[in-house]
Queue: 3 jobs
Job 1
Amino acid sequence: MEDRATAKQRLMALSRLPVDLDIIYTNKLDEKISIVRRIGRALLFRMGYFPERNNENAQLIKKLSEKKYNILFIEKGLSIRPRSLIKAKQLNPQMQIISYTLDDVFNKNNSSVYYLKSIPLYNFHFTNKKFNVEELKSAGGNKVYYFRNAYSEDVHRPVIPSPQELLFYGADVSFIGTYEEERASFIRFIAQCGIKVKIWGWVKSAASTSMKHTNITVIDKYVYDDEYSKVVCSSKINLCFLRKENRDTETTRSVEIPACGGFMLAEKTVEHLELFGENKEAAFFSTKEELLEKIQYYLKNELQRKDIAANGLSRCLRSNYSYSNQLKNILFIITKDNAFSDN
């Protein structure tokens, strides 16, 4: 498991379930590595190999040698070698090996040679990409299940920012996420039409001349945990763009924003319309012109905007879009499908 925002949130959700957990981190947010190692990793990644960051393969085998487990739950196991999974099965043939990922596993930027070779070795695959279901089966995946995105009950909740926080985090329109040219073109368009936009986490292209406009403010940092919720709750309108290279039709933001009680204006997809009622629990757009029109309308209609945000939060709670519920359902599927023998 990576020691990053959403992985940590799922860990907190798992800790509330009646399970006995042992964790191996594959990455650390505060990890410091030399330039030489960084270059070496980049070269390996280009070749399709995802390098270890925390000696996770050896750690995994050591833990499995010391204790019997019912489930080995691996999140986005790009650095986990096929031989490690084979050894894991030899150590405990009854153990169910689970692959869980929020990314398009056939996008080369979200995959690795190790992972692709390991697909048949997992007992279960859980993916939030509908199109990945058949692709994983075609690649030898055994039992493949689709799940919806979720929010963290520990993080994504309504917060009341202080006057100072409102000044810092507040915006007419905000976007939390990374650069993608299509996103940038939409933001440039509305900025040129007089809409003020604040972007959090752009990073790679924060200094890009194409994004320099008096109506665009780029905060060159990622926001996590409570700070994420403060940005959402301090913004009148929260944009939800999808990542095209990841073939997204929904994303974690799709439920995180409404779960914070924020007003969400998202790209229109079938999946988004399944999650939230249009103009009742969230608002949606398809073109630049429609995005501008919706922003202008909802900035002027505060009461309607707030009603939609409140209804979006109610939908998250009513439909139980939380990680706790998602993970409980995943564990139910695994245990229902497999009668574990005593170890």
Note: The two ends are 24 Å apart (CA to CA).
Job 2
Amino acid sequence: MNVLITGTSRGIGRAIAQKFLACGHCVTGIDREPASLSGDGYTHVQADILSDPLPEVADVEILINNAGVQNSGRDIDVNLKGTIRVTEQYAMQDKIKSVLFIASASARTGSEFPEYAASKGGMVAYMKNTALRVAAYGATSNSLSPGGVLTQMNDHVIQNPELWKQVMAETMLPKWAAVEEIAEWAYFVTVVNRSMTAQDLLIDNGEADNSHFVW
């Protein structure tokens, strides 16, 4: 299938692109950074999803909105407005089969940085709006809301033993997800799944529900 993924130069987006390429799909990646992937089946477009012209990509069957920033002063503009711009261009056509948004656990909890949480909460609401419209093409639209993920963006916490200890105390399962696990979820939701739509999946090692009963 023809797959378009934003934010493929590192982290979750790169892992998702690698998963689809390994499974024999054709992947177009859009990222403001240079390509970190190469080989048959992969095309890289260096562009900012908010401000640069978006490439003409015909017959997109799977669209995965992953590109984003955190605590940048542009969170709502890039994470929400940029994602809407990409989706409106590539998803609203009769070849589309699935749209996926990489949101965040903070969309549910409101934790983390204010504009980041707001941008991801807006993304989940927009995902549901997208589901209503792409249903006309027989397509699904869902989102993944990861909690902590082992990415370069989170090195500030991962590499600090005291902060890491505090973070681990917040989860039921004392770990964070690897990018490869999120990629597996992305593949399942967009390729294997054909019946679930308008749903947000929380993948946070139990952090949001880690309540303790004190008696």
Note: The chain has a mean pLDDT of 96.
Job 3
Amino acid sequence: MGTTVVPRSGVARTGAYRVYTLAWAGAGVFLLLLSAPALPRFPPEYLLFAALSVAGHVFFVLDLPGGLRLSLQAILAPVWLYGWKAAPPLFLLTLPLVLRNSREDPLRALLYFGNGCVWSAAAGNLFALLRPSPSPQPTWPEVASVLVSGAAFTVGNFLVAAFGRYLATGDVRILQPRQALEGLTLVFSGYVLLAYLLLLALQTGPGAAFLAVGVWLLTAVAMKGLVETRRANERLQEALRELERLAVTDPLTGLWNRRHFVQVLPKELQRHARTGRPLSLLVVDLRSLKHVNDTYGHEAGDRALQRAAEVFRERLRASDLPFRIGGDEFALLLPDTDTQGAVTVAKAITDRLSGTRLECAPGARLEATVGVATFPHHGLDPDHLVAAADGALYRAREKGVPVATPEG
């Protein structure tokens, strides 16, 4: 097993990340040099773990929550069987595969190598300290030593890789308790028990070892399928949420569209009816849009609409809801706002619009007319409230003023 950092493309590596990675890589090289003399003494079965390590990186690489990757290698089985010196050569063997898959960030591969070597050495020494003589017949002390050393490797390896990702990308999500716990659970359950199964099988005989390798492969395939299915479902949910957002959003201005206005207005009226608080509706007509389109072209008209949307966002509260409900018409819902407050907001918006200049239309002014209506005084249901705001808008046009209410 090896967890590696997956930085976001285009994010500059910090000096701290480089130093952090090279320090871990240096520790890995030191442990590799210490383990090299033991390599010729390993039995032929050691080649099985070399093959499983390569297979883990070629076929069974899983994307963990938070952007880390898990490669299923069953690395702890040879550590438990032959000691910690069995691990560094296997990490060196798979290092080119990690480099190939991370050409945009070779530091990730170096962190993988050093991180794996250090924590496999820690796990091997801890296992030897707790249970120096593994037996084909599992005993509770041996199981405990397996779980403790496996947990040490899992937690240490995972946290080093997660902190490396944070240094590389600034993304702290993987270090948050929920994400970290999910990743740790998947890593621990994915390889500690399988590695112990291989350990017991190799001590039993060739037939059991063959069976254990088959179980490892099937489990790896199942885990990969499970994780990839979950990721696919998450991507599908994200796509559905994006489609829902697009369905109720005006693509030009980014404001809510008329469809969403028709859905939201009844709900807001019901909510304010329960609380007894007023709700004001502003219908805004960007009356200068036709002049901008005719004089400077539709591209300038589009920019005028976008600038109007920017003004709404600047002048409205976070609880207010702006909508584009027509070509040059907008609706603004102001919760907990009476008529006087809504008129004040409307005048501030029209003043801000009239003082706005467009680079693509230097001689144009963004002039708007606003009709104001308030629930429950001017209407108790959506149709009557909208009609009252439209009537106020027409009244403002007739009187030549920027803002009007149904009363004047």
Note: The chain has two domains: 2-246, 256-404.
